[in-house]
């Protein structure tokens, strides 16, 4: 992008509002104008201008009359991924199967952000049910990368990334099942954070893979992510997996960072991405941190295990979308069987149907032990291996993706090649550990953003964000 954002941090926004340099109404108008200017990129599927402006006017009134009543997120405009529920608003998870569905409740994270004074601008485009790595798999059409509109922004939170990239908000709320925040953040030159599993409630998130899904945050800096994390985290009576974060020892000034040589030497790694990643590692060494190689023999098993497990969970979670209770119902159906068959066939995309079928296959009685049970064993081994590494190291370094953003349509006919683009991100979800994508530079030839990521031990989210600053 040629022009940077109007404000690069929440602190800068709130400082300008308090000094009277800008009103919240004018700020929201700026964001809405940016969204209209960049509409061709297809980041948003719906904007909420009237609602956002009313909230902005209320914030301006509080600033004038009762500044002591302002919440910690006053003046903070956010975008919301289209698989997160917001009461009274349409939510479709990018799919025809939920056409016209309005949520009756808000996700816990959304409620907490609103209570803190945040303003939602609109809902962002995403791969259907979070299933995709390019944001081409949406009933609303593909999202385009603002760096190069002929290229993908990454997925499934590609709309969220482009909403932040084009300065339509100060931060974006997305979801991460296998890298769906970190990979688009890397492709769009942003910071993208996936918390420890259970740190942010999943209540109100339309489930894809329940033991993998996590709400997360994209922003222009890790300090903003930390603020939003502190507001959204914590126990929730609607989600038994959401708990209070246990205490974690503070990070020492000199961090110990492990990296896996096989990730950098992989034959699928682009040379330019490799050079930027190696330069980032060298920068850590020059800053005085301990950087050391570490063996990681499970790399080749990560993608197969991830896709076996997530498709199995998807086949169960998506069984509720049947054309009976809500959402799309085929007008061609003549009886109950046809209602199920045609509604699901017409409502789901090819990629969603592919994953439902694969998940049903691996859970079937003849193949459960051969595939699903084995994948669970790999997941347990991966987590144990990472936890062992975190006994000796504070963080694990990995590239965010083996390539930069590819051209739209380049991988749509090769699902396996698309799945392999997640090779470096899915391990954090398999293990349930926090991870952050960090802008690392630009590809030396293509001049496109390159991101790297750092993983931390479970519940060391704030140490990770503090270090990333």
Account of the 3D structure:
The structure is a single chain. It contains 16 helices and 11 strands. The chain has helices spanning 10-18, 24-37, 49-65, 108-115, 158-165, 182-188, 222-232, 261-264, 271-286, 299-317, 336-347, 350-363, 368-392, 415-420, 426-431, 461-468; strands at residues 44-47, 77-81, 119-124, 171-176, 191-194, 214-219, 256-259, 290-293, 395-399, 435-442, 449-456. Strand 10 and strand 11 (449-456) form a beta hairpin. It is globular.
Summarize, please:
With 469 residues, this protein is an alpha/beta fold.
Question: What topology emerges from the helices and strands here?
Answer:
Elements: H1 10-18, H2 24-37, E1 44-47, H3 49-65, E2 77-81, H4 108-115, E3 119-124, H5 158-165, E4 171-176, H6 182-188, E5 191-194, E6 214-219, H7 222-232, E7 256-259, H8 261-264, H9 271-286, E8 290-293, H10 299-317, H11 336-347, H12 350-363, H13 368-392, E9 395-399, H14 415-420, H15 426-431, E10 435-442, E11 449-456, H16 461-468
Parallel strand pairs: 2-3, 2-4, 7-8, 7-9
Antiparallel strand pairs: 1-3, 4-6, 5-6, 5-10, 9-11, 10-11
Helix content: 25-40%
Rg, Cα atoms, Å: 21 Å
Mean pLDDT: 96
If strands are numbered along the chain, what order do they take across the biggest sheet?
A: 1-3-2-4-6-5-10-11-9-7-8
The helix/strand class is alpha/beta
The ordered H/E elements are HHEHEHEHEHEEHEHHEHHHHEHHEEH
Query: Which segments are poorly predicted (pLDDT under 50) over 5 or more consecutive residues?
Result: none
β content, as a range? 5-15%
- The rounded distance between the terminal residues' Cα atoms is 23 Å
């Amino acid at each position: 992008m040629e022009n940077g954002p109007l404000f690069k941090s929440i602190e800068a926004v709130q400082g300008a509002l308090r000094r009277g340099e800008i009103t919240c109404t004018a700020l929201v108008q700026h964001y809405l104008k940016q969204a209209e200017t960049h509409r061709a990129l297809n980041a948003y599927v719906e904007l909420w201008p009237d609602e956002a402006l009313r909230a902005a006017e209320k914030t301006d009134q509080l600033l004038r009359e009762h500044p002591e009543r302002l919440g910690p997120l006053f003046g903070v405009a956010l975008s919301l991924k289209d698989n997160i529920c917001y009461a009274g608003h349409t939510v479709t998870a990018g799919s025809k199967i939920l056409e016209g569905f309005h949520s009756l409740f808000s996700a816990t994270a959304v409620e907490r952000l609103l209570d803190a004074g945040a303003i939602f601008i609109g809902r962002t485009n995403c791969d259907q049910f979070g299933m995709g790595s390019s944001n081409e798999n949406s009933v609303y059409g593909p999202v385009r990368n603002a760096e190069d509109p002929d290229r993908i922004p990454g997925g499934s939170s590609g709309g969220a990334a482009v909403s932040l990239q084009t300065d339509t908000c100060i931060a974006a709320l997305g979801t991460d099942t296998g890298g769906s925040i970190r990979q688009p953040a890397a492709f769009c030159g942003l910071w993208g954070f996936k918390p420890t599993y259970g740190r942010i409630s999943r209540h109100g998130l339309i489930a894809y893979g329940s033991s993998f899904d996590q709400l997360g945050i994209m922003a222009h800096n890790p300090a903003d992510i930390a603020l939003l994390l502190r507001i959204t985290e914590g126990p929730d009576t609607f989600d038994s997996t959401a708990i209070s974060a246990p205490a974690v020892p503070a990070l020492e000034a000199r961090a110990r960072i492990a990296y896996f040589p096989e990730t950098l030497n992989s034959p699928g790694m682009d040379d330019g991405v490799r050079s930027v990643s190696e330069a980032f590692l060298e920068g850590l060494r020059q800053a005085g941190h301990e950087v050391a190689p570490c063996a990681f023999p499970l790399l080749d098993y990560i993608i197969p295990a991830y896709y076996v497990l997530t498709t199995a969970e998807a086949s169960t979670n998506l069984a509720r979308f049947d054309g009976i209770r809500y959402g799309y119902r085929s007008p061609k159906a003549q009886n109950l069987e046809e209602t199920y068959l045609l509604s699901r066939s017409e409502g789901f995309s090819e990629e969603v149907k592919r994953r439902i079928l694969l998940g049903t296959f691996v859970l079937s009685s003849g193949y459960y032990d051969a595939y699903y049970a084995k994948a669970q064993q790999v997941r347990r081994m991966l987590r144990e291996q990472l936890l062992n590494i975190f006994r000796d190291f504070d963080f694990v370094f990995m590239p965010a993706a083996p390539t930069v953003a590819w051209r739209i349509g380049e991988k749509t006919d090769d699902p396996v090649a698309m799945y392999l683009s997640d090779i470096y991100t899915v391990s954090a979800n398999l293990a349930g550990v926090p991870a952050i994508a960090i802008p690392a530079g630009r590809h030396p030839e293509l001049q496109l953003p390159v991101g790297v990521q750092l993983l931390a031990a479970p519940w060391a989210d704030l140490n990770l964000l503090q270090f990333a600053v």
